[in-house]
Amino acid sequence: MSESSCNMCERLLQLYLDGALNEIEARAAEAHLDECGYCRQHYRFERAYREYLRKTLTSERMSSELKTKLAALKTGAGSL
């Protein structure tokens, strides 16, 4: 039994949005999105949601205390 196009698109959508699919998989996903209104709507929602999160999360300022803790973790010199 083969996987339906919508199931395959659903399974690969996050990877597609991340740009992590190979060229053949990306073309197959794009072809399906061109043909399927339901999956295209899902794709648009996920893309808009990611953009919303990106804008929302990057607009908050990080406290200097948190920056110091993160820098320590990055260098392996401390813990939270």
Any overview of this molecule?
It is a single chain. The protein has 80 residues and is mainly α. It has one domain. Helices cover 78% and strands 0% of the residues. Helix 1 crosses helix 2, helix 1 runs parallel beside helix 3 and helix 2 crosses helix 3. The longest helix is centred in the middle third of the chain and has 23 residues. The radius of gyration is 19 Å and the shape is elongated. The model has no long low-confidence stretch (mean pLDDT 86).
Quick recap:
This protein is an all-alpha fold and 80 residues long. The protein has one domain. Helices cover 78% and strands 0% of the residues.
Order of helices and strands: HHHH
Number of domains: 1
Structural class: mainly alpha
Helix percent reads over 70%
Portion of residues in beta strands equals: under 5%
Structure keywords:
4 helices, mainly alpha, 80 residues, 78% helix
How does the SSE layout of this entry go?
Layout lengths: L4 H14 L4 H13 L1 H23 L4 H12 L5
